[in-house]
Amino acid sequence: MLPVDDTELYVRDAGGPGRPVVYLNGAYADQKHWKRVIAELGTDYRHITYDERARGKSKRSNDYSFDGALRDLDAVLKARGVEQPPLLVGWSFGGILAWHWTDRHPDRVAGAVIVDAFPLGLTGEAGRERIRKTFRSYRLLLPIAARLGLGARMSADQHADINIELNEIAAASVPVLGRLTRPVRFVLATGDSLGSEAGEMEEGRKVLDEVLAANPNIKLSAKVASNHSKILRNDSPAVARAVRELAVTQGHTAG
After folding, report:
1. How much of the chain, in percent, has pLDDT values that exceed 90?
2. What are the tens digits of pLDDT across the range 85-120?
3. Distance (Å, rounded) from C-alpha 250 to C-alpha 220?
4. Separation between Cα atoms, residue 142 and residue 138, nearest integer Å
5. From residue 177, how far is each of 168, 173, 196, 212 by CA, in Å?
6. How many CB atoms lie within 10 A of CB 228?
7. pLDDT computed for residue 146 by the predictor
8. Partners of 4 in the beta sheet?
9. What is the dihedral of CA 201, 202, 203, 209, to 10 degrees?
């Protein structure tokens, strides 16, 4: 358990001399979702996972902001003594966190793998109201979702606050992605997600086309058949391949 601000984070570190890989979870997910990716990559890497505030085994907090999540990543790297620049692997919320961290700290990152996150989001009053309405409709299911590693130990409105901020940050991220100087690989899903409307996720993924065309440091590693929710479970080999691609560009080879 790692003390950070007013809370404690549950952190696991495989240790060893391999290239550090730090896994950043989906907005309400816990670290268990990375098990298949880690198994695919094997023991040649130093795998570091952790649960964000009020997710998994981490404690609650008074601050669930995106800036708080950036501070958590900084705290984990410092506490685990990660001196060699790590590869960041982020799914959904974690992907957006990964590209913002890479933008702010290019000298501290070897590269990033982004799993089905893209620079588009619901914004404005209509978008905020839609998000709040969606999470309020799930309010009775959220405690069950938290026990399954798919929700946080928060109220429906707190879940919505995180999602509203994330959508606004994602929607403003094209310039951030455009100026990244570290290598980035995207692994994209297909189809819709819980709470999205038909075709909405695919429209979001298309926004990446202009980023891929403008920044040679960013490449699409794979687009897989799984949807947003199942990509880590069903297409972990594609995520692992993207990690290996980046590791090779950084002079690290592994099985």
Report:
1. 76
2. 999 999 999 999 999 999 999 999 999 999 999 998
3. 18
4. 6
5. 15, 6, 23, 9
6. 24
7. 87
8. 7
9. 120
Average pLDDT, the chain: 91
Residues in the chain: 255
| Whether pTM exceeds 0.90 | yes
Tally of CB atoms within 10 A around 222: 16
CA 243/CA 89 separation, integer angstroms = 8
pLDDT tens sequence across 202-248: 887 888 999 999 999 999 999 999 998 899 999 999 999 999 999 98
Residue ranges of alpha helices (H) inside the chain are 35-41, 66-79, 93-104, 124-137, 142-147, 156-171, 174-178, 200-206, 208-214, 231-234, 236-249
Residue type, 83: E
DSSP 199-234: THHHHHHHTHHHHHHH-TTEEEEEE-SS-TTTHHHH
